[in-house]
Amino acid sequence: MTQRLARSLAFGLIATMALSGCVRTAASIVTAPVRVAGKAVDWTTTSQSEADEKRGREMRKRDEQIGKLDKRYQKHLRDCRSGSEDACNRARDDYAEMQELRSGPY
Q1: Which of 64, 68, 96, 104 has its CA 20 to 30 A from that of 74?
Q2: What is the pTM of this model?
Q3: Using an 8 Å Cβ cutoff, are 101 and 70 in contact?
Q4: Rounded distance, CA 77 to CA 93, Å?
């Protein structure tokens, strides 16, 4: 009877060890679709902080463009005051472009 008990305990121990791997595998299979769906949602949605960062980059880029246009406008305006009709036309175009950028979404 002792030998039979020892065999039963050994078999039980081996079975427990083998089944623990199966349980982990089964749990992984069951939770896999949820994890995949969660990652898909993360990839397709933009978080608020990402949207804010993008908006900030766009605002800085727009401000940089306005700064460059303003420098060009000031130069053309000086030349216009010196009597250059072509510079007056360019200054008007620069000013209109600056106004267009300033009236943008930001």
Answers
A1: 104
A2: 0.53
A3: no
A4: 11
Contact 106, 59 (CB under 8 A): yes
- Residue whose C-alpha is closest to residue 71's, from 44, 47, 97, 51: 97
d(Cα 98, Cα 70) in Å, to the nearest integer? 7
Number of H helices and E strands in the chain, helices first, is 3, 0
Is residue 53 a contact partner of residue 42, using CB atoms and an 8 Å limit?
no
Spatial separation of the C-alpha atoms in residues 75 and 41, rounded to whole Å: 51
State both tokens at 23.
């349980």
pLDDT digits (tens, 9 = 90+) for 11-49: 666 666 665 666 566 566 667 666 776 676 666 677 888
- Which contacts qualify for 26-29: CB closer than 8 Å, 24 or more apart? none
